[in-house]
Amino acid sequence: MKNQDWRQRLYVMVFQSDTPAGRRFDTTLLLIIMASLVVVILDSINSIHLKYGDLLAYIEWGFTFVFAIEYGLRLYCSPKPLRYAFSFYGLVDLLAIVPGILAIYYSDAQYLLIIRVIRMLRIFRILKLLPYLSQANYLLSALRGSKQKIIVFLVGVSTLVTVFGTLMYVVEGPDHGFTSIPVSIYWAIVTLTTVGYGDIVPQTIPGQVISAMVMITGYSIIAVPTGIFTAELANAMRGEQLQHTCTTCKKAQHEASASFCSRCGNALFVKNV
């Protein structure tokens, strides 16, 4: 019984971030994750690695030990350990531990480079805290609401860059750097997004005309996904504000600041006596 009670308390702290203990746990975990990422970033700088490499390695092992304990606690107190272990966040938690273990057995520079990349995947653990932040919920809701519109937009853009890239391949050809249709599509993407690396430049007048058309098109559509997302974000925030429902007449969608129903006048929030 005591063991079950301990597991329940542990579950509340580790998994339920809407409780005081859970919030403290997540805040501490967030700081540890950020610190571990800073260590990985610093270790990638050659001058710092040569001077403080051993110290950073010890710190990294310390982080690995902390993450291993946290992973073990989650498996221990989870009602369905296997489901957690094979979930997205469970796999991310596991990847936070694996690099530190691999670094002990593989000291080759090439393997260490791969391990550093894997360590950076810890940043995805920050996503675990997003569902408990109200503002992040607005963003997630807006992303879900705008998903289909953005997909349609991306399909349209993909069609445009394919058409423009093919035209440039025909007009300019390999002699001017447009050696294939994929290379020409790459040029169209770079030009449409107004990045303009300058590694491939049209030389003929028709090619320059097409290039100008691509740039103008880029300026005209670059703000489209931003507008879609902003509109969905506004809808999500308004939906949150209009969530109160009257328990008497069942009228929904009252303003967040409302205390009484706009239809029947009864109190929206009844205190239990």
UniProtKB/TrEMBL annotation:
Q: Where are the transmembrane segments?
A: 29-49, 55-73, 85-105, 150-171, 209-229
Which cellular component appears as one GO term in the record?
Answer: voltage-gated potassium channel complex
- Identify the main location: membrane
Location of this chain's protein in the cell: Membrane
BP-aspect Gene Ontology terms: action potential
Residue ranges of the Ion transport domain?
A: 24-236
Q: How does it sit in the membrane?
A: Multi-pass membrane protein
Q: Does the keyword Transmembrane helix apply?
A: yes
Q: Which InterPro entries match?
A: Ion_trans_dom, VG_K_chnl, Volt_channel_dom_sf
Q: What is this protein called?
A: Ion transporter
